[in-house]
Amino acid sequence: xxxxxxxxxxxxxxxxxxxxxxxxxxxxxxxxxxxxxxxxxxxxxxxxxxxxxxxxxxxxxxxxxxxxxxxxxxxxxxxxxxxxxxxxxxxxxxxxxxxxxxxxxxxxxxxxxxxxxxxxxxxxxxxxxxxxxxxxxxxxxxxxxxxxxxxxxxxxxxxxxxxxxxxxxxxxxxxxxxxxxxxxxxxxxxxxxxxxxxxxxxxxxxxxxxxxxxxxxxxxxxxxxxxxxxxxxxxxxxxxxxxxxxxxxxxxxxxxxxxxxxx
Length: 263
Prior knowledge:
This protein is mainly α. The protein has helices at about 1-15, 15-30, 40-60, 70-95, 95-100, 110-135, 145-170, 175-190, 205, 210-225, 230-255. The protein contains 11 helices and no strands.
Protein backbone atom coordinates (compact mmCIF):
# COMPACT_ATOMS: atom_id res chain seq x y z
CA UNK A 1 0.00 0.00 0.00
CA UNK A 2 2.95 2.30 0.69
CA UNK A 3 4.11 1.81 -2.90
CA UNK A 4 0.61 2.64 -4.13
CA UNK A 5 0.58 5.84 -2.02
CA UNK A 6 3.99 6.76 -3.40
CA UNK A 7 2.65 6.31 -6.92
CA UNK A 8 -0.28 8.62 -6.22
CA UNK A 9 2.04 11.22 -4.67
CA UNK A 10 4.52 11.00 -7.53
CA UNK A 11 1.68 11.08 -10.04
CA UNK A 12 0.75 14.54 -8.75
CA UNK A 13 4.35 15.67 -8.42
CA UNK A 14 5.46 14.44 -11.84
CA UNK A 15 2.24 14.90 -13.81
CA UNK A 16 3.95 17.46 -16.06
CA UNK A 17 6.74 14.98 -16.86
CA UNK A 18 4.16 12.27 -17.44
CA UNK A 19 2.26 14.49 -19.87
CA UNK A 20 5.52 15.27 -21.69
CA UNK A 21 6.35 11.57 -22.05
CA UNK A 22 2.89 10.84 -23.45
CA UNK A 23 3.18 13.83 -25.78
CA UNK A 24 6.60 12.65 -26.94
CA UNK A 25 5.19 9.22 -27.77
CA UNK A 26 2.52 10.79 -29.94
CA UNK A 27 5.07 12.92 -31.78
CA UNK A 28 7.39 9.96 -32.35
CA UNK A 29 4.61 7.64 -33.50
CA UNK A 30 3.14 10.01 -36.05
CA UNK A 31 6.36 11.76 -37.14
CA UNK A 32 6.47 12.11 -40.93
CA UNK A 33 3.11 10.35 -41.23
CA UNK A 34 0.83 11.98 -43.77
CA UNK A 35 -2.40 10.81 -42.13
CA UNK A 36 -1.04 11.17 -38.59
CA UNK A 37 -3.52 10.43 -35.83
CA UNK A 38 -6.12 9.37 -38.42
CA UNK A 39 -4.30 6.03 -38.46
CA UNK A 40 -5.72 5.43 -34.98
CA UNK A 41 -9.13 5.36 -36.66
CA UNK A 42 -8.13 3.58 -39.88
CA UNK A 43 -5.92 0.82 -38.44
CA UNK A 44 -8.63 -1.09 -36.51
CA UNK A 45 -11.03 -0.79 -39.46
CA UNK A 46 -8.46 -2.09 -41.94
CA UNK A 47 -7.41 -4.90 -39.59
CA UNK A 48 -11.04 -5.86 -39.01
CA UNK A 49 -11.73 -5.83 -42.74
CA UNK A 50 -8.87 -8.22 -43.48
CA UNK A 51 -9.78 -10.55 -40.61
CA UNK A 52 -13.48 -10.47 -41.50
CA UNK A 53 -12.68 -11.35 -45.11
CA UNK A 54 -10.41 -14.22 -44.11
CA UNK A 55 -12.60 -15.74 -41.40
CA UNK A 56 -16.01 -15.28 -43.04
CA UNK A 57 -15.09 -16.16 -46.63
CA UNK A 58 -12.32 -18.70 -46.15
CA UNK A 59 -13.15 -20.27 -42.78
CA UNK A 60 -16.90 -19.56 -42.84
CA UNK A 61 -16.87 -18.12 -39.32
CA UNK A 62 -20.14 -16.73 -37.95
CA UNK A 63 -21.71 -15.73 -34.66
CA UNK A 64 -25.38 -16.82 -34.57
CA UNK A 65 -27.80 -14.08 -33.55
CA UNK A 66 -25.34 -11.18 -33.65
CA UNK A 67 -23.47 -9.24 -36.33
CA UNK A 68 -20.04 -10.77 -36.95
CA UNK A 69 -18.36 -7.44 -37.77
CA UNK A 70 -19.39 -5.94 -34.42
CA UNK A 71 -18.41 -9.19 -32.67
CA UNK A 72 -14.98 -9.08 -34.29
CA UNK A 73 -14.41 -5.35 -33.80
CA UNK A 74 -15.42 -5.38 -30.11
CA UNK A 75 -12.86 -8.07 -29.35
CA UNK A 76 -10.21 -6.59 -31.59
CA UNK A 77 -10.07 -3.09 -30.05
CA UNK A 78 -9.81 -4.53 -26.53
CA UNK A 79 -7.08 -7.03 -27.33
CA UNK A 80 -5.16 -4.55 -29.49
CA UNK A 81 -5.00 -2.12 -26.57
CA UNK A 82 -3.58 -4.79 -24.27
CA UNK A 83 -1.16 -6.03 -26.93
CA UNK A 84 0.26 -2.62 -27.85
CA UNK A 85 0.34 -1.18 -24.31
CA UNK A 86 1.99 -4.24 -22.74
CA UNK A 87 4.63 -4.40 -25.50
CA UNK A 88 5.50 -0.71 -25.21
CA UNK A 89 5.51 -0.85 -21.40
CA UNK A 90 7.84 -3.86 -21.50
CA UNK A 91 10.57 -1.89 -23.30
CA UNK A 92 9.90 1.43 -21.57
CA UNK A 93 12.49 1.15 -18.79
CA UNK A 94 15.25 -0.30 -20.98
CA UNK A 95 14.63 2.34 -23.67
CA UNK A 96 14.98 5.14 -21.11
CA UNK A 97 18.14 4.00 -19.30
CA UNK A 98 20.04 7.08 -20.50
CA UNK A 99 17.40 9.34 -18.97
CA UNK A 100 17.26 7.35 -15.73
CA UNK A 101 21.05 7.67 -15.34
CA UNK A 102 21.00 11.46 -15.69
CA UNK A 103 18.12 12.64 -13.51
CA UNK A 104 16.06 11.23 -10.70
CA UNK A 105 12.50 10.29 -11.46
CA UNK A 106 10.24 7.44 -10.37
CA UNK A 107 10.94 4.57 -12.75
CA UNK A 108 7.37 3.32 -12.87
CA UNK A 109 6.43 6.53 -14.70
CA UNK A 110 7.73 4.95 -17.92
CA UNK A 111 5.39 1.92 -18.15
CA UNK A 112 2.59 4.14 -16.83
CA UNK A 113 3.13 6.70 -19.61
CA UNK A 114 3.00 3.96 -22.25
CA UNK A 115 -0.29 2.58 -20.93
CA UNK A 116 -1.76 6.09 -20.88
CA UNK A 117 -0.48 6.86 -24.37
CA UNK A 118 -2.00 3.71 -25.85
CA UNK A 119 -5.11 4.35 -23.73
CA UNK A 120 -5.69 7.62 -25.59
CA UNK A 121 -5.38 5.76 -28.88
CA UNK A 122 -7.79 3.17 -27.49
CA UNK A 123 -10.39 5.85 -26.86
CA UNK A 124 -9.98 6.96 -30.47
CA UNK A 125 -10.59 3.40 -31.70
CA UNK A 126 -13.98 3.51 -30.02
CA UNK A 127 -15.04 5.92 -32.78
CA UNK A 128 -14.74 3.33 -35.60
CA UNK A 129 -16.20 0.69 -33.26
CA UNK A 130 -19.35 2.70 -32.70
CA UNK A 131 -19.42 3.62 -36.38
CA UNK A 132 -19.61 -0.11 -37.17
CA UNK A 133 -22.26 -0.55 -34.47
CA UNK A 134 -24.48 2.16 -35.98
CA UNK A 135 -23.87 1.13 -39.60
CA UNK A 136 -24.83 -2.48 -38.90
CA UNK A 137 -27.95 -1.43 -37.00
CA UNK A 138 -26.82 -2.98 -33.73
CA UNK A 139 -28.94 -1.70 -30.87
CA UNK A 140 -27.38 0.86 -28.51
CA UNK A 141 -28.89 1.12 -25.04
CA UNK A 142 -28.24 2.73 -21.68
CA UNK A 143 -26.17 -0.28 -20.57
CA UNK A 144 -23.28 1.16 -22.61
CA UNK A 145 -22.75 3.59 -19.73
CA UNK A 146 -21.38 0.60 -17.76
CA UNK A 147 -18.50 0.06 -20.19
CA UNK A 148 -16.10 2.50 -18.42
CA UNK A 149 -15.87 -0.06 -15.59
CA UNK A 150 -14.45 -2.60 -18.03
CA UNK A 151 -12.15 0.00 -19.60
CA UNK A 152 -10.76 0.93 -16.18
CA UNK A 153 -10.24 -2.71 -15.21
CA UNK A 154 -8.50 -3.36 -18.55
CA UNK A 155 -6.20 -0.38 -17.93
CA UNK A 156 -5.27 -1.56 -14.42
CA UNK A 157 -4.65 -5.12 -15.64
CA UNK A 158 -2.48 -3.89 -18.51
CA UNK A 159 -0.56 -1.54 -16.21
CA UNK A 160 0.14 -4.43 -13.84
CA UNK A 161 1.39 -6.55 -16.74
CA UNK A 162 3.47 -3.57 -17.89
CA UNK A 163 5.15 -3.34 -14.47
CA UNK A 164 5.99 -7.05 -14.52
CA UNK A 165 7.23 -7.14 -18.10
CA UNK A 166 9.29 -3.94 -17.84
CA UNK A 167 11.00 -5.21 -14.68
CA UNK A 168 11.73 -8.69 -16.03
CA UNK A 169 13.03 -7.36 -19.37
CA UNK A 170 15.74 -5.34 -17.58
CA UNK A 171 17.29 -8.56 -16.28
CA UNK A 172 16.28 -10.85 -19.15
CA UNK A 173 16.45 -9.18 -22.57
CA UNK A 174 15.23 -12.41 -24.14
CA UNK A 175 11.85 -11.44 -22.73
CA UNK A 176 11.25 -9.27 -25.78
CA UNK A 177 11.33 -12.36 -27.99
CA UNK A 178 9.61 -14.68 -25.53
CA UNK A 179 6.71 -12.29 -25.08
CA UNK A 180 6.24 -12.13 -28.85
CA UNK A 181 5.52 -15.87 -28.82
CA UNK A 182 3.35 -15.56 -25.71
CA UNK A 183 1.21 -12.76 -27.16
CA UNK A 184 0.69 -14.75 -30.38
CA UNK A 185 -0.55 -17.73 -28.37
CA UNK A 186 -2.63 -15.37 -26.21
CA UNK A 187 -4.29 -13.99 -29.34
CA UNK A 188 -5.52 -17.41 -30.44
CA UNK A 189 -6.54 -18.35 -26.89
CA UNK A 190 -8.84 -15.31 -26.83
CA UNK A 191 -12.24 -15.48 -28.60
CA UNK A 192 -11.67 -12.49 -30.86
CA UNK A 193 -12.49 -13.92 -34.27
CA UNK A 194 -14.33 -17.08 -33.19
CA UNK A 195 -17.25 -17.86 -30.90
CA UNK A 196 -16.19 -19.56 -27.67
CA UNK A 197 -19.13 -21.93 -28.06
CA UNK A 198 -17.07 -23.92 -30.60
CA UNK A 199 -14.57 -24.85 -27.86
CA UNK A 200 -15.06 -28.39 -26.47
CA UNK A 201 -16.63 -28.41 -23.00
CA UNK A 202 -13.63 -30.15 -21.41
CA UNK A 203 -11.28 -27.37 -22.62
CA UNK A 204 -13.56 -24.43 -21.86
CA UNK A 205 -12.14 -23.83 -18.37
CA UNK A 206 -8.68 -23.16 -19.87
CA UNK A 207 -10.05 -20.34 -22.03
CA UNK A 208 -11.90 -18.88 -19.05
CA UNK A 209 -8.62 -18.57 -17.14
CA UNK A 210 -7.73 -15.87 -19.67
CA UNK A 211 -8.39 -12.42 -18.11
CA UNK A 212 -8.88 -10.79 -21.52
CA UNK A 213 -11.77 -13.20 -22.14
CA UNK A 214 -13.70 -11.63 -19.26
CA UNK A 215 -13.03 -8.06 -20.40
CA UNK A 216 -14.25 -8.91 -23.89
CA UNK A 217 -17.25 -10.80 -22.53
CA UNK A 218 -18.21 -7.78 -20.41
CA UNK A 219 -18.17 -5.56 -23.50
CA UNK A 220 -19.98 -8.04 -25.75
CA UNK A 221 -22.75 -8.74 -23.24
CA UNK A 222 -23.63 -5.05 -23.42
CA UNK A 223 -22.84 -4.24 -27.06
CA UNK A 224 -24.14 -7.39 -28.72
CA UNK A 225 -26.59 -9.04 -26.35
CA UNK A 226 -28.09 -5.92 -24.71
CA UNK A 227 -27.80 -7.34 -21.20
CA UNK A 228 -26.03 -6.26 -18.04
CA UNK A 229 -23.04 -8.58 -17.48
CA UNK A 230 -23.55 -11.13 -14.72
CA UNK A 231 -22.14 -10.52 -11.26
CA UNK A 232 -19.43 -13.14 -11.89
CA UNK A 233 -18.20 -11.15 -14.92
CA UNK A 234 -17.95 -7.95 -12.84
CA UNK A 235 -16.05 -9.83 -10.13
CA UNK A 236 -13.64 -11.56 -12.53
CA UNK A 237 -12.82 -8.27 -14.26
CA UNK A 238 -12.16 -6.55 -10.92
CA UNK A 239 -10.19 -9.42 -9.39
CA UNK A 240 -7.92 -9.89 -12.41
CA UNK A 241 -7.35 -6.13 -12.68
CA UNK A 242 -6.46 -5.54 -9.04
CA UNK A 243 -4.66 -8.86 -8.61
CA UNK A 244 -2.28 -8.31 -11.52
CA UNK A 245 -1.86 -4.61 -10.68
CA UNK A 246 -0.75 -5.32 -7.11
CA UNK A 247 1.46 -8.20 -8.26
CA UNK A 248 3.04 -5.89 -10.83
CA UNK A 249 3.64 -3.14 -8.26
CA UNK A 250 5.20 -5.66 -5.89
CA UNK A 251 7.56 -7.06 -8.55
CA UNK A 252 8.53 -3.60 -9.78
CA UNK A 253 9.20 -2.26 -6.28
CA UNK A 254 11.36 -5.25 -5.36
CA UNK A 255 13.52 -4.98 -8.47
CA UNK A 256 13.70 -1.28 -9.42
CA UNK A 257 16.72 -0.46 -7.25
CA UNK A 258 18.74 -3.07 -9.17
CA UNK A 259 17.96 -1.68 -12.62
CA UNK A 260 21.04 0.54 -12.56
CA UNK A 261 23.33 -2.51 -12.54
CA UNK A 262 21.92 -3.90 -15.77
CA UNK A 263 22.30 -0.90 -18.06
